[in-house]
Structure formats: structure tokens, C-alpha cells
């Protein structure tokens, strides 16, 4: 098929790579403008742009698509279909109507659960048993279009947002390649979403990752995994911010935030229910360290307290 591809991060790049490998004609790739990154804050191309240029594909990077004047490359491409994956720009109805078969979104949840910006993180945070990929015919709403295909994936007890992202990116790439022959043959039946089952995965802010020790340990474990690697769950200890990268629920009793045990591989902290064994930590400006190495450079004592989050 003749495709336009619109996407920006690594999640999208995997889908683009699969479509290229499958032999589809891709006359145009849309991605976000280059952004400053790294210590030098030099402009850096998105993973999708880097991949597209390696394959000699035309790349356009509009700041927005609200103005019809910016649609010219999309019209010129004369595409059968646009594939969209984590693009980051809103596509107005006028753009959705340009390709012959419209636009399909690769969404990282089992819609209608977790529409919106952060479906991977919110699924882990909520304790969902599974997530997956939905291929959706796009409309003007926020992830509200009819579903063309769904593929489920279990969420493992040790999955982080990073590990689940990688699994879903690979699944999404396989699913979109498998869908296109069926779509071209006209054997796909679209299914409307049940609005009564819809949930919203709101954009993540730094406050979402602040640890409140009054919550149950099982919820804090999910919170730490949901925000690994970005933005990283964080807590206050002796007035300093410490990021918590790896933890597990554990036995222990004490006041919320109290260090109740120091072991070879864990710092155990009491929570509102149960306790949390901290296995990997990082002080501001430092490296991620296993608990033993963290303790070697930051001696702690049983009875010492992590502090409540600001405003608690």
C-alpha cells in the first residue's frame, strides 16, 4: 500500500521499520521538529526521522497542522492510508480525510481503557492485569475512533513502563503489518468503542511520581514501576530528593516513611499498609545504585524517616 507515516519516538520507529521491511511504499514521513537534548542541548532528530532518513524517505516536520496550507505534502503524497503512532500533534478532520482510506492509529492500550497521553504508565499504576495494542480508525475525538484490531499482552509483576513500552512497540509493529492486507481486501469490520468503559490516561507530571508513604506498599511498588524510566519516582530523605528505581513489597511495620530494616540488598521502609523494600536508588546528581552501594555512600539508621511529599 501507499502510506504516509506519522510518528516521533522509538515506539513509532519500530512500526515504521516493520512497514518498510514489509515493502510498503512510503512517500512521506511526518515527525515532530528536532528538539534540544543532552547536556549540550543540541537539536536532535526524533527516532522516526533518523530511521526515515537512513532509508531515503521524505521527511516533513510541521510545527502544527491546523492551517490548511501545511497540508500540501500530505495531499501531494496521494496515499491510500496514513499510519499514526505517538506522533504528538493533533490531526484535524481535514487531514484525516486526505488519505483514501483515512488514518489508523497504533494505540498502546486496549481501548476504550486508557485513552490519552500515558496509557502504558497508567495501566501499571492502576494494577491492570493486561494491556495491549489497539489499531483504531482515527476520528476528530481523543482516541475515540472505531477499533479495527486488538491484541492483548499480560503485565508482568516486574514490568516497568520501559519494559512494557518495548513489548508493546514490538506488538504494535507486528499488528499493523498484519492488518494492512486485510484492510486492503476489505475483510475488516470496525467495532465502535463502548463509551461507558472509557478511562483517561492523563499526561504525567512530576507530582505524579512523588512517593506518599501513607499509601499501601503494593500501590507504591506500582507507582515506582509506572514512572521508570520517566520521570522517576522520588522521595525526600534528610531534605534531599532521592529517586527510587526498583522496589518490592515486603514485611515490616512502623510509621509511614520509617526505615524499619537495613539489609544487604534492601532498605525497608514502612508504608500505610505493609512495607517497601527499596532495591535501587539514586541521589540528585549521582548514579543509580543498588541498595548496598547506596548505603555505603549514604549511611542510614533504622528509625530514620523518609519525609512526606510537599503539601502532604
UniProtKB/TrEMBL annotation:
CDD domains recorded: FMT_core_Met-tRNA-FMT_N, Met_tRNA_FMT_C
Endpoints of the signal sequence: none
Chain ranges of the Formyl transferase C-terminal domain: 203-298
Binding residues annotated for (6S)-5,6,7,8-tetrahydrofolate, in chain numbering: 109-112
Pfam families: Formyl_trans_C (PF02911), Formyl_trans_N (PF00551)
Catalytic reaction(s) noted: L-methionyl-tRNA(fMet) + (6R)-10-formyltetrahydrofolate = N-formyl-L-methionyl-tRNA(fMet) + (6S)-5,6,7,8-tetrahydrofolate + H(+)
InterPro entries registered for this protein in UniProt: Fmt (IPR005794), Formyl_trans_C (IPR005793), Formyl_trans_C_sf (IPR037022), Formyl_transf_N (IPR002376), Formyl_transf_N_sf (IPR036477), Formyl_transferase-like_C_sf (IPR011034), GART_AS (IPR001555), Met-tRNA-FMT_C (IPR044135)
UniProtKB keywords: Protein biosynthesis, Transferase
Domain Formyl transferase N-terminal: 2-176
Family: Belongs to the Fmt family.
The protein, known as: Methionyl-tRNA formyltransferase
Species annotation: Sulfuritortus calidifontis
Amino acid at each position: 500500500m501507499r502510506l504516509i507515516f506519522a510518528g516521533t519516538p522509538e515506539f513509532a520507529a519500530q512500526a515504521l521499520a516493520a512497514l518498510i521491511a514489509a515493502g510498503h511504499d512510503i512517500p512521506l514521513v511526518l515527525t515532530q521538529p528536532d528538539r534540544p537534548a543532552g547536556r549540550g542541548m543540541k537539536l536532535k532528530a526524533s527516532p522516526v526521522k533518523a530511521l526515515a532518513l537512513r532509508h531515503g524517505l521524505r521527511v516533513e516536520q510541521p510545527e502544527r497542522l491546523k492551517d490548511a496550507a501545511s497540508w500540501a505534502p500530505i495531499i501531494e503524497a496521494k496515499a491510500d492510508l496514513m499510519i499514526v503512532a505517538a506522533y504528538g500533534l493533533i490531526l484535524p478532520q481535514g487531514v484525516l480525510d486526505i488519505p483514501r482510506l483515512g488514518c489508523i492509529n497504533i494505540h498502546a492500550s486496549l481501548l476504550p481503557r486508557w485513552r490519552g497521553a500515558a496509557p502504558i504508565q497508567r495501566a501499571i499504576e492502576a494494577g491492570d492485569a493486561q494491556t495491549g495494542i489497539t489499531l483504531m480508525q482515527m476520528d476528530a475525538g481523543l482516541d475515540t475512533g472505531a477499533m479495527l484490531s486488538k491484541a492483548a499482552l499480560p503485565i508482568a509483576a516486574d514490568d516497568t513502563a520501559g519494559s512494557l513500552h518495548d513489548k508493546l512497540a514490538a506488538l504494535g509493529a507486528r499488528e499493523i503489518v498484519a492488518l494492512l492486507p486485510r484492510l486492503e481486501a476489505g475483510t475488516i469490520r470496525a467495532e465502535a468503542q463502548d463509551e461507558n468503559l472509557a478511562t483517561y490516561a492523563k499526561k504525567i507530571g512530576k507530582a505524579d511520581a512523588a512517593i506518599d508513604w501513607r499509601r499501601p506498599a503494593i500501590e507504591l511498588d506500582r507507582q515506582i514501576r509506572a514512572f521508570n524510566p520517566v520521570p522517576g519516582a522520588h522521595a525526600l530523605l534528610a531534605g534531599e530528593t532521592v529517586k527510587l528505581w526498583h522496589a518490592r513489597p515486603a514485611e515490616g511495620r512502623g510509621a509511614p516513611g520509617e526505615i524499619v530494616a537495613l539489609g544487604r540488598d534492601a532498605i525497608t521502609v514502612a508504608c500505610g499498609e505493609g512495607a517497601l523494600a527499596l532495591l535501587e536508588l539514586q541521589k540528585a546528581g549521582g548514579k543509580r545504585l543498588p541498595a548496598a552501594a547506596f548505603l555505603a555512600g549514604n549511611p542510614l539508621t533504622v528509625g530514620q524517616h523518609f519525609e512526606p511529599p510537599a503539601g502532604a
